[in-house]
Amino acid sequence: MAGVTISQSNPQALPRVAVVAPDVEVYDTLAVYCPLCGQALEEWGTPRVPTTLLAPTFEADEVPVFGYRCPHHRREDVIVPAPAVIAPESYRRVEATLDGVDELTVALPPVIDDE
Length: 115
Ligand SMILES: [Zn+2]
Hints:
The chain is mainly beta. It has strands at residues 16-19, 23-24, 32-33, 40-41, 48-50, 62-64, 67-70, 76-81, 92-98, 101-108.
């Protein structure tokens, strides 16, 4: 019987995480594009980003932010925080520093257990 290889993972092969500033075309539509490949990003979620990018100090090494994970990159995890203006009201706004953008306001889900 043929086995199914589920995992080819080893620690060295884990994808690199790249957190990049969103490319927002027009604020009318608030369409957000991946700055690396130019693809429109549609399914938002709460990918985790390293807290070293965020202005406030967090206990955790990474926290979820309102944003996207671009599905078009195989070698790395490309995370694109969404502009905070399109985040739900209840989300917490914090400043982030990403490559090429000094200050970008990103939104964190309201429920984060710091423990
Ligand atoms: Zn992309």
